[in-house]
Amino acid sequence: MKKIILLLTLSLSLWAESVYVKTIDAPMTTVYEKVLSTLGHADLIVVSEINILEKFKKAGLPEKFAKNFNTNELTGIKAIIACNGWFGNEIANADPLMMGFCPIRLTVIEKDGKTSILFVRPSVAPKDSTAYAILKKLETKVITAIEAVK
Description:
Layout: H1 2-18, E1 19-24, H2 28-41, E2 45-51, H3 52-58, H4 61-65, E3 76-83, H5 85-94, E4 104-111, E5 114-120, H6 132-147
Antiparallel strand pairs: 1-5, 2-3, 3-4, 4-5
């Protein structure tokens, strides 16, 4: 039993370190445009936007999964894919396998009128990668942009 509790504690700790979360007490309709704007001000070019919840609905998932669909009652799920050419080039030059972290992806979710911006930190990459220092700088740039969202 102690091993299970320890494992759960470690898992939660790793998750907290892996995913940056900022929650704002405002609906997604208000927050989303601000996220796009702050990314642009940080020289992160938005290359794609995906309304995930709408795509799920159009794919018939509410009917397919019935009572198991969206059990947390999220009222919005969107993904933003963004890139900065300098970072992309530097990461590709240093360690092409780390391009899995660039372009970056933000997931924006809404529940109960609150919006959360989620970002998987590139610093979860292997520390021995020759791109690690660049990934850390990219992470700082993205988190600074997210923090500018008010």
